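Weekly structure sync, notes
Attendees: PL, DS, HV (note-taker this week)

Item 1: HotDog ACOT-type domain-containing protein
DS walked through the input record. Source organism listed as Prototheca wickerhamii. Sequence as pasted into the shared doc:
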Amino acid sequence: MEHIAFAAPTRVGDIMYIEAQATAIFGSSVEVMISVWAETSEVGGLFACGDAYATVVSSELFVE
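Item 1 (cont.): predicted structure, written out as tokens:
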């Protein structure tokens, strides 16, 4: 993980939505932006509760 930001707390019973999107693709790695949203049954509606950036690196090098 390169960066994690917690914007708001969540509680037991909240519905969590996680969205991941590739932001950069390299030879053997991918940078991914992860957004986390939550929905509470008390208030309703979605609110942002966190986001992160991660780099995923291949453990094997595929050669054709």
